[in-house]
Write a structure and sequence with these properties.
With about 350 residues, this protein is α+β, with helices and mostly antiparallel strands. The chain has helices at about 40-50, 90-100, 105, 110-125, 140-150, 170-185, 200-205, 220-225, 230-235; strands spanning about 1-15, 15-25, 30-35, 55-60, 65, 75-80, 160, 190-195, 205-210, 215-220, 245-250, 255, 260-265, 270-275, 280-285, 290-300, 305-310, 315-320, 330-335, 340-345. The chain is globular. About 40% of the residues are buried. Bound molecules: adenosine-5'-triphosphate. GO terms for molecular function: ABC-type transporter activity; ATP binding; ATP hydrolysis activity.
């Protein structure tokens, strides 16, 4: 059942087209992440859903109602920003309880209900030991969690979140990320979440809308975004490290790529050959059908290694769990898992094969 609908939404700021004809549907209870680089229009799209911006054209629907001309307060959404604001003179408890207190008649909440909801969300965000503290006496990361708790304590139709975890330190961010997903699942609140962090997107989302230059390039579940990118932009934005892309040109039966040739899969125009770092097998010795490269540098990252390899005039990355005893300048032999390879049109970036 669709719950939030964007219908051909465009937003211009003077000459800048921040959001370019975006149509998108979010199902009830779904967790959708807008993912993209800085300036791609994620925040503006979210603010349009919240009612903080009016679209230049297009309509927004929430729960079957056209809300395009409604004020934020009339939409029953809760928004969490990266820049939090809390009431410094109030305690943590009072801060979190505030949205419930002001609506307690409408929501029919007893003081006990309020306490239970505040405690639950405070526990989830690991600030339950701070409930009696003045908000002004907290660290920045704790204040951020109070602001998040204050948004999450409400159970509106939609939660809208703009990089809510970005000011938390790495360890707490991981914990809160998991707790947030659990709470969203438990309560089933439709959630739209903006981030430029692909790990957050992949871990949290039911579906990811990858955005670039004001447009949605692909809208699909995380696994599909990762394994079946429909555009080179998605392939090279998602993945750590992202997909290798090598420019190749057809020459009859073969595709000429940097430092090697492949059988032409049937293209007549220049293309990008795309292969993820984990779909490349490597060997220090020559093996049948392998492509020869030269080790540029090896980067150990805990349980894995990233081998940077020069192929012709191009640097690619190979990801491996095997111990690597290679040095810069050593020869290395690579085999691509061609079943996992992608071919993108050089001119448009669109997936061909
Ligand atoms: P970031 O991750 O950096 O926050 P974003 O993807 O959220 O980026 P937006 O903030 O939506 O991007 O901005 C999209 C484009 O619209 C940018 O080019 C930005 O400069 C422009 N823009 C956003 N708000 C305004 C405004 N109020 N006036 C003029 N231009 C704006």
């Amino acid at each position: 059942m669709t719950f939030v609908v964007l219908d051909r939404v465009t937003k211009r700021f003077g000459n800048v087209v921040a959001v370019d004809n975006v149509s998108l549907e979010v199902k009830k209870g779904e967790f959708v992440v807008f993912l993209g680089p800085s300036g791609c229009g994620k925040t503006t799209t979210l603010r349009i859903i919240a009612g903080l911006e009016r679209p230049t054209s297009g309509r927004v629907y929430i729960d079957g109602v056209d809300v395009t001309d409604l004020e934020p307060g009339e939409r029953d959404v809760a928004m969490v920003f990266q820049d939090y604001a809390i009431y410094p003179h109030m305690t943590v408890f009072q801060n979190i309880a505030f949205p419930l207190e002001v609506n307690k008649k409408k929501l029919r909440l007893t003081p006990r209900d309020i306490r239970e909801r505040v405690e639950r969300v405070a526990k989830m965000l690991q600030i339950d030991h701070l409930l009696n503290r003045k908000a002004s006496q907290l660290s920045g990361g704790q204040q951020q969690r109070v602001a998040l708790a204050r948004a999450l304590v409400r159970e509106p139709k939609v939660w809208l979140m703009d990089e809510p975890l970005s000011n938390l330190d790495a360890l707490i961010r991981l914990q809160v990320r998991a707790e947030l997903k659990r709470l969203q699942r438990d309560l089933g609140i439709t959630t739209i979440y903006v981030t430029h962090d692909q790990v957050e997107a992949l871990t949290l989302a039911d579906r990811i809308a990858v955005m670039n230059a004001g447009r949605v390039v692909q809208y699909a579940p995380p696994g599909e975004i990762y394994d079946e990118p429909q555009h080179m932009f998605v392939a090279t934005f998602v993945g750590n490290p992202p997909m290798n892309v090598l420019k190749c040109t057809p020459a009859g039966e073969v595709l000429k790529c940097p430092g090697f040739e492949l059988r032409n899969p049937g293209v007549s125009q220049p293309v990008y050959f795309g292969i993820r770092p984990e779909y490349i097998e490597w060997s220090p010795k020559h093996v049948e059908g392998a492509v020869k490269g030269v080790v540029y540098v090896v980067e150990p990252i805990g349980s894995e290694y990233i081998i940077n390899v020069t192929l012709g005039n191009t640097l690619i990355k190979v990801k491996t769990f095997r111990e690597v005893a290679l040095r810069p300048g050593d020869e290395i032999y690579l085999r691509f898992n061609l079943r996992k390879a992608k071919i993108f049109d050089e001119a448009t970036g669109k997936l061909l094969l």
